[in-house]
Amino acid sequence: MRILSTLFFISGFAALVYQVVWQRTLFAIYGINIESVTVVVTAFMLGLGLGSLAGGAVSKDPRRPVVLLFAAVEATIGLFGAVSLPLFRGVGQATLTLSPPAVAFVTFLLILAPTMLMGSTLPLLVAHFTRLSKNVGRSVGLLYFINTLGSALASVVSVLVLLPRLGQGHAVHVAALLNLAAAATAFVLHQRQKGATSSLDSGDSSGETPSRTAELAR
Amino acid sequence: MSRRFPLTLAVALMAGFIALSYEILWYRAFSFVSWGRPTVFGLLLGCYLLGVALGSSGSRRFCREDDGDASGQERSLRALAAFVFLSDVAGFLVIPILARLAQYAWFPAFGVVAVSAGLLGAVLPLVAHFGIPADDRAGQRLSYVYLANILGSAAGSFLTGFVLMDVWSTQTISAFLGATGLVMVALLFLASRPSTPRAAVGLGTVVLAGVGAVFASPVLFEHLYERLLYKELYRPEMTLADVVENRHGVIAVNHYQQVYGGGAYDGAFNVSLVDDKNFIERAFAVSAIHPNPKNVLMVGLSSGSWAQVVAHLPGVEHLTVVEINPGYLELIAKHPHVASLLKNPKVDMVIDDGRRWLLRHPERKFDVIVMNTTYHFRAHATNLLSADFMEVARAHLLPGGLHYFNTTSSDDVQRTAATLFPHAMRIVNFMAVSDSPLTFNHARWERTLREMEIDGVPALDLNVPHQRDVLARLLGMGHTIEQHAYDKYGLEGRDDLLARTAGARLVTDDNMLCEWEDLLKFPKGADL
């Protein structure tokens, strides 16, 4: 749990770096007038919300390997993050002259995939932690705390260190590296759990169902 | 479960709405007090999220395993009601406390944000604990609660940031959010099925808080923008002549006709070279640098003084002004020196982001692009001062075209401009850059100063001795370029400028260099 919590902290840190940098990039393209700001902020939120729904839907089956899914999500966010700025600028230039609703739709599509992935992680891990602790409030409180603490630190570090010293491009690369490192660690964690499950299976011929053994492994 | 879950969703929705609405209001106030320095956004968000994180962590101790029974649910609801009440009161008080602290040191107000956000942050785990059973579907149900919270936040962004801020003042919106929070408290408290005496005490407290807020609000928010603007210089007798609050920001005007956009000095209502409190000669200087500025674009309007001068320059046939905040038009209409600008057939006003407008109109070309840009260290100033933007501007210049803008004395910005363009000249703190040779034409300069009129009033009345002195000083300014010595209030050629700014770096969209100077140095009270 401690390792997974640390990874979720890193995930929250990276997510906020993306948010700060992506917003600035989109504002430079689409403007800092209130209409653009509202579109960008709302698109971020809707992406997170839809991602939460998706994560929740996936999490309800206890047989699903949550840690492996978390690793996959982090890896995908990291890969997207690494190419995000050229992608945003390219799409932004190509769609600049569209009507305001069309621009809003394009903005939403641009950040839909990564924000959905970001939004999916909380319900995934809450499901995992609740199965262990049997206490929703404490699971949500702990995970929300860890993830938000990472984001809080990222807010301050972004404006005091990352952006002033590295600029937008390298700041995003730092975030991408953090995501990929979190993904790799989660993958190793999953493999270890799988190994533990296999040993349990080999030492126990009682024929337990996959869901039961998966639960034991956690 | 069937009754609890809809209540859970409703609370998550409302909590998201209130939290994000307060965040928007707080950002407006913190941005105003700090002149919109980019670090403030990060620090405010950091404190807000730290508070939310600590609140969500602290709330765990209120989540007991035996809360599933009826008395446990009622206990959970009462804890929720208490947190919502405290967060509501704290959230309402953040801006008044910031305004009071501004007279001494406003930085501690970040701590108040963290406390308030902490109380708000406790709500989501508590409500999740109340409404979601600890079974295999916990993750899925949480996703609905989280979605409801996010939808509430999105509604806060839209309704408060987009609609309410256009019709109500900060004080009124704060009161509305406070009242909304109190209604939520009352509903949560009643849902916990309190005994009659408890209900009387609880609801009585809520009503008292509401009545207290109504009466205290005018006092708490009194002289809000005066306090945030003048800070340590504030005295109770100081009042602003005008304050325009809309969804685009806050514009304040003092009794000296100075304009403050988002808390930062943004020029003054003045077109006179004699009573010159805004270095308006820099606007007149366009006619010395460009021989025939027929078609001019101005990005940014503020007091309209610059636009008024440029619209009256010899040869100008058409002036397009792109301004992001329509609030300036309201103010211009009230000031006689510039009011005619709004009816001038040569002038077109466009409400839009300047950079976006240029990107969306590649076909529009100009003889001169003028920008009396805001301070280079304010958030998003890069959007108009980077090498990337200068390329955008260059693409909109006609042959022989001039890009002329305020660098607010940033060496980085001046060097960027002189590096990108083969022809460059500094005029006080402005840069004039072009792909064609630039000269400061003394004859045109003198003719403009002697003959130009604005709304029939001569720029200089040379029958008045003092005004003849002004003419002599301004004519002298045109010759400072020949001295090859740095004169802050004079002119400087490209070679001299590049030699002087050898240590400076190029500003790009990526490095946003000009915004990150003296990261934690915040402005003191506005000069009177």
TrEMBL record, chain A:
Residues 196-212 have a biased composition (Polar residues). The keyword Membrane applies. Coiled coil: none annotated. The keyword Membrane applies. This is Spermidine synthase. It comes from the Bacteria. Gene3D superfamilies: MFS general substrate transporter like domains. Keywords: Membrane, Transmembrane, Transmembrane helix. The chain crosses the membrane at residues 29-54, 66-88, 108-130, 142-164, 170-189. Residues 196-218 are annotated as: Disordered. It comes from Pendulispora rubella.
UniProtKB/TrEMBL annotation, chain B:
The keyword Transmembrane applies. The chain crosses the membrane at residues 7-27, 39-58, 79-99, 105-132, 144-165, 171-192, 199-221. CDD domains: AdoMet_MTases (cd02440). Gene3D superfamilies: Vaccinia Virus protein VP39. Keywords: Membrane, Polyamine biosynthesis, Transmembrane, Transmembrane helix. This is Fused MFS/spermidine synthase. It comes from Pendulispora rubella.
